[in-house]
UniProtKB/TrEMBL annotation:
This is Transporter. Belongs to the outer membrane factor (OMF) (TC 1.B.17) family. GO terms for cellular component: cell outer membrane; efflux pump complex. Keywords: Cell outer membrane, Membrane, Transmembrane, Transmembrane beta strand, Transport. InterPro entries: OMP_efflux, TolC-like. GO terms for molecular function: efflux transmembrane transporter activity; porin activity. It is found in: Cell outer membrane. Coiled coil: none annotated. Its main location: membrane.
């Protein structure tokens, strides 16, 4: 009896040692490290950051039309002509293949000093577009960090299930060995050995399927982290669930921090500024211009064969629209419709966020209850398995009952792991919607 108990203990110890050795041979990836790598390398975050930098660069008074344009000009034209000139006194002058040239160069400045305040509205709009770029970057970061966290806890869940299947295989292997020994000494039929072998093969299949799923999830995580997809690693096994979230608190946080809602507010403001620019087209446009130019004209025939000049030019221009075929009124109507659409989109986003929160929070509460229930079920299944294995050791229980206890324990462990995972994913989803997702 003591020898048999030692053998049972050895199976568990060997299985545990092999599992520990395999984990130590791999990189242990923490959640903090995974998020840090994603923030540094993820392609979507980098692309969104580039868009945000472009929006930031676009915020300038020159881009808004507030500053003058200065240009340098150069024109050099040459000609070769046969020319005839008849003077008033009847004298005729002729030149064959006469060469002529015109040279003009200088610097000019044009500056629109007033355009119905459109330039000021445009500058404010560029600032709002910069804020929109920042908000879109926040949304991308929030989404990708949520993806990393979800995948991370999926790996934790799958590791839990791998251990459950490992335990099942260890017990099935013990049953095969025991059945074979009993058959050899004539205390069991061949059928008991075959049944034990079938159960062992079934558990092995389940383990292989779970290993495949775990490996594919590792590949997906490596893709999110933009590193070699074949990198193997493990993750810590702990899942800590925040069970103090309230719907009222989440709704209040979402109203202030949800990036999609902030983007909808900014889009409405951008539409209002666009309408302001459209209305500015009713007012006059006033501009000033100045420049310094040099010109030289040379001809082979005429009263003057060479003339030069240089000097300063300046002036003022003004224009006011009087009638544009009713296009101004149409443009203003369309701008007002766009403002209304932006308001409707804001309300739609707000409604959608509230619906997501309410639905996700209900799922979160259900999963919290399931965690407590499945934790108790798993503990009971563990106790039942221990009692069953002790009876099996004493030979006072059938192999069918052993298998039932074994399957019940594995299923309870898997359900408990799933409940933990779903509760944690629910927590992550709620904080992502509220815009407060942190480690």
């Amino acid at each position: 009896m003591l020898k048999y108990r030692f053998g049972l203990l050895s199976f568990f110890l060997i299985s545990l040692l092999f599992g520990v050795s395999e984990v130590r041979a791999q990189e242990v990836l923490t959640l903090e490290e995974a998020v840090r790598i994603a923030l540094e390398r993820n392609y979507d975050i980098k692309l969104s950051a580039n868009d945000e930098r472009i929006a930031q660069n676009n915020v300038s008074r020159g881009n808004a039309g507030m500053l003058p344009n200065v240009t340098g000009n150069l024109t050099n034209n040459n000609s070769i002509q046969n020319s005839t000139q008849t003077r008033s006194d009847g004298q005729v002058n002729e030149v064959s293949w006469g060469q002529g040239s015109t040279l003009n160069y200088g610097v000019g400045l044009n500056w629109t000093v007033f355009n119905g305040f459109a330039m000021f509205a445009r500058y404010e709009q560029l600032q709002e577009l910069e804020k929109l770029g920042e908000t879109n970057l926040q949304l991308t970061i929030l989404t990708r960090v949520g993806d990393v966290m979800s995948t991370f806890y999926e790996l934790v869940q799958q590791q839990h299930q791998l251990r459950a299947y490992d335990t099942a295989i260890t017990l099935s292997r013990l049953r095969v060995t025991t059945a074979q020994n009993r058959f050899e000494i004539g205390k069991a039929a061949r059928l008991e050995v075959l049944n034990a072998q079938v159960d062992y093969n079934t558990d092995t299949t389940n383990l292989l399927r779970q290993q495949e799923l775990y490996r594919n999830t590792q590949i997906r995580m490596n893709e999110l982290l933009v590193r070699d997809v074949n990198t193997k690693f493990s993750v810590p096994d702990i899942i800590l669930i925040d069970d103090h979230l309230t719907l009222e608190g989440l709704s209040s946080q979402a109203a202030q921090m949800n990036p999609s809602l902030k983007a909808a507010v900014l889009n409405r403001r951008i539409a209002e500024l666009d309408a302001k620019q459209v209305r500015a087209a009713r007012l006059p446009v006033i501009g000033v211009n100045t420049g310094y130019n040099f010109n030289r004209n040379r001809s082979a025939l005429g009263f003057s064969t060479l003339s030069t000049g240089n000097g300063l030019t300046y002036g003022v221009s003004a224009s006011v629209p009087i009638f544009t075929g009713f296009n101004q009124r149409r443009n203003e109507q369309n701008a007002n419709i766009l403002i209304n659409s932006a308001q409707l989109q804001f309300e739609q986003v707000n409604q959608n966020i509230n619906a997501q929160l309410a639905s996700a929070y209900q799922t979160y509460l259900t999963n919290l209850s399931l965690v407590r229930l499945e934790e108790n079920n798993q503990r009971i299944a563990r106790q039942n398995l221990d009692i069953t294995m002790e009876k099996f050791r004493l030979g006072s229980i059938t192999t069918v009952e052993v298998r039932d206890a074994q399957v019940n324990f594995v299923n309870a462990t898997v359900r408990y792991s799933n409940a933990q995972y779903l509760a944690k994913i629910g927590e992550v989803a709620l904080k992502e919607i509220a815009g407060t997702l942190t480690l």
